[in-house]
Specification:
Number of helices: 10
Order of helices and strands: EHEHEHEHEEHEHEEEHEHEHH
Radius of gyration: 18 Å
Structural class: alpha/beta
Bound molecules: NADPH dihydro-nicotinamide-adenine-dinucleotide phosphate
Helix content: 25-40%
């Protein structure tokens, strides 16, 4: 039997075991998918080698990239990995977050300009996803120390976002609203941006964040991160099991998310 896991800290909230185990059952794979609470990133490789593969979540995605023997092009460019496969003692790294995001925003992809709020690991994956889509990008964050990771892109602090500029798509990649009722930046800034925007996307899933609520009040089309979560899982499942019926995998994972 092959054993897979999601590895992170915290991990108890992770929906990945539920999603993957339902798909494993549907495809009759001889496998099980569990969760592992890792205290220290230094042990990631050792722990990983006891599994056949894993999804890596906060805060180990960068370390996941570092420990890999082989890296997919997206992993090299983004600098983080969320999907690791172990083959003959070697670690192969992939990033399915950016693929999940692209699938989730399919309907919004005719946007010509986008504002990305936040400059962490997820923002890096999203910038990579959007960079070949002919979309003018601005990355904004509350602190500037992360801008070194975006040296090819236009970046600014929230208070310096040009409010006269139009952003068709506004994306929240920050954790603001995850465990609190905070907006990523001031209401004044967001309301001024939303006046000229059409779509708002939040990577946070399973709740209506204050960011999405405000976007809705300003008549934007909105979407949360559930589909991104599901699709990053679909792409990871394809890699783990060499199964390529995406709609069937998606259906199994979707059911798993909502069956309890
Ligand atoms: P990082 O820690 O790498 O980055 C966090 C970012 O959020 C930074 O830009 C940080 O700003 C900002 N931030 C945190 N708290 C606040 C706040 N209260 N106000 C304003 N900005 C804030 O995290 P990740 O990029 O890895 O993850 C971000 C979110 O994305 C998480 O909520 C995670 O659950 C979600 N996610 C969802 C996925 C999905 O499939 N739907 C996939 C991956 C992630 P600063 O630099 O100033 O600290």
């Amino acid at each position: 039997m092959r054993i897979f896991s999601v590895i992170g800290n915290p991990i108890v909230h992770s929906k990945s075991p539920r999603m993957h185990n339902n798909a494993i059952a549907l495809f009759n794979e001889n496998a099980v998918y569990t969760r592992y609470l890792l205290q220290d990133g230094k042990n990631l490789k050792k722990i990983l080698l006891s599994f056949d593969g894993a999804n890596i979540t906060i805060p180990f995605k960068e370390i996941a990239c570092e420990i890999a023997d082989f890296k997919d092009e997206s992993v090299i460019k983004i600098g983080s990995a969320n999907t690791l496969v172990v083959k003959n003692g070697l670690v192969y790294a992939y990033n399915t977050d950016y693929l999940g995001f692209l699938k989730a925003i399919e309907k919004f992809i005719n946007a010509k300009s986008a504002l990305i709020l936040g400059a962490g690991g997820t923002a890096k994956a999203l910038v990579y996803a959007l960079e070949n889509k002919n979309i003018e990008l601005l990355v904004a964050n509350r602190s500037s120390y992360r801008f070194k990771d975006f040296f090819n892109y236009e970046c600014c602090l929230y208070e310096n976002i040009p409010l006269h500029r139009q952003f068709d798509l506004v994306i929240n990649t920050t954790s603001a609203g995850l465990n609190d009722e905070n907006l990523p930046c001031s209401k004044f800034i967001l309301e001024n941006i939303f006046k000229k925007s059409s779509f708002a996307f939040d990577v946070i899933y399973g709740k209506e964040t204050p960011f999405l609520k405000l976007a809705k009040e300003n008549n934007l089309q909105v979407k949360d991160g559930t589909d991104m979560l599901l699709w990053q899982g679909v792409y990871a499942f394809e890699i783990f099991f060499n199964q390529h019926d995406q709609e069937k995998i998606y259906k199994a994972m979707y059911e798993a998310l909502y069956m309890y």
